[in-house]
Every structure is written in C-alpha cells, then in structure tokens.
Design a protein that fits this description.
alpha+beta, five-stranded antiparallel sheet, single chain
C-alpha cells in the first residue's frame, strides 16, 4: 500500500516538473531594451511569440515579435494584412542577421514567387523599428499606426533561411507550420466569462468513496484496503491539480 502511494506521488511530481518546463512561454521572456507590453501570445506555429500593446486613444499598436530563423543567417517576419490572413498584400517587418548585425526592413508583399517586385513602402505608418538577437532568436520591435477604431487585424508571421545579395528574403519552407502561420489578432473586445457555478451535490454517498460501516460492525479487510487506495488516489490527484493551478 505504501508503495502505491509513493508511486502516485512520484507521478504527480513528474507532472509538476513537466508543467514547469512548459511554463517558459512568452510570459517569462524579457528584452534587453527593457520594453514591456500589456499582452503576449504564444503563437501556434514556428516557435514564435508576440508581445503587444494597443492604445485605443491613438490607434497605435506596439509589438515585439520573437522567433528563431530557419537557419543561423536566416530571417524572421511579422506582418499585418489589411485584406485577409494571407502573404499576398501583407505589410511586413522582416529582420535578419548580416555581418553580426541585425537589420530590419519593410516589405509590401505582392507575390509568392518574385520578391524582386516587392515594394518597401508600407500602407501603414511604422516607426521605432529595431531588432535584437538572443539565444538563437530574433526579436522585431516596432509601432504601427492603425485606422481609427480598429479592433482586430490579420497577422502573418514567418521564418526563412537567408537574404539575397540584393537584400531580398529567400523563400521560406512550404511545410505545414509555415503555411499555417497566420490568423487574427484581437486588439479590443476579447471575449471573457466565468464558468457557471456547479449545482449543490445531493445528499448521499459520493462515488469512489467507501460508505461508512454501520454502527457496531467492524469494517471488512476489503473495505479498509479500498479506503486506503482511495486515499492514495485522492492524495495524488490533489498534487496533480495543484500543479496545474500553479502553472
């Protein structure tokens, strides 16, 4: 019996450690320029993260986008598309490493294949552009002037292998992660709500918990063993639930 309890507790502790490792997401990231943002999002693909603050008073979006390029001298990019969540018409901030320096450029993406036709002037006003590298990741910083009363934008993010001699990005991979690296960024009016309160439990036996023995009668051996197993189970369950709440 003691061995069973010990095993359950060890499993719970293993889950706790696993949850601790997984908790190292955007909320734990810090920038050397000390920029701080109101929100952060663990993006679904390409090991990318977005930190952002939206000022509804002047429709200014401040962002810090972080991702590892697909190769050491590669590039990372974060874009807003005023039309749809697609690369075509994306207004992109793209950063890459060049001779140990991080360079950031703007691109108006007009085609999938011929980057030589891309424009460099965006349809949005952008400023305070900069980039930094840390632990294999490149982070893009910038501010965007959005149309008044903007509540959401189409965002597209990408990583690629390198830059041509003319300063144009080499094509990114066509795998599933790259193709799905897009979506909506909700700036205001995010949905929130509380789950309904559970109904009071009716009086009576609780499933999984042995019923008390009648007065004047001794508990059988099977009942005592069942009670100990239940106690061990609930002990492990409490530790597991505690780990999930903490992280």
């Amino acid at each position: 019996m003691a061995r069973l309890c010990f095993t359950l507790v060890i499993l719970a502790l293993a889950l706790l450690v696993s949850q601790s490792d997984q908790s190292l997401t955007c909320t734990s990231q810090r920038f050397t320029n000390k920029n701080v943002y109101t929100n952060c999002t663990d993006l679904s693909y390409l090991n990318a993260y977005l930190h952002w603050t939206y000022n509804t008073t002047n429709s200014t979006l401040s962002i810090a986008f972080t991702a590892p390029p697909s190769k050491p001298d590669g590039w990372v990019s974060w874009s807003i598309n005023p039309v749809k969540p697609s690369m075509i018409s994306a207004q992109a901030l793209l950063a890459f490493k060049h001779k140990d320096n991080i360079t950031i450029n703007t691109y108006n993406v007009t085609s999938y294949d011929d980057a030589t036709k891309w424009g460099t002037k965006l349809s949005y006003e952008v400023w305070d552009l900069s980039a930094e590298e840390s632990n294999g990741n490149i982070t893009i910083f910038g501010k965007w002037k959005l149309p008044e009363n903007t509540k959401m934008v189409n965002q597209i993010w990408q990583v690629g292998p390198g830059i041509t001699d003319k300063g144009l990005p080499l094509s990114h991979d066509k795998n599933l992660d790259n193709l799905k690296a897009k979506g909506m960024l909700q700036l205001v009016g995010t949905q929130s709500g509380a789950a309904p309160s559970p109904s009071p439990s009716p009086a009576g036996p609780v499933p999984g918990v042995p019923a008390p023995a009648p007065a004047g009668k001794k508990k059988s051996a099977s009942t005592r063993i069942g009670g100990r197993i239940s106690a061990c189970f609930y002990m492990g369950l409490v530790v597991i639930l505690g780990s999930l709440i903490v992280f």
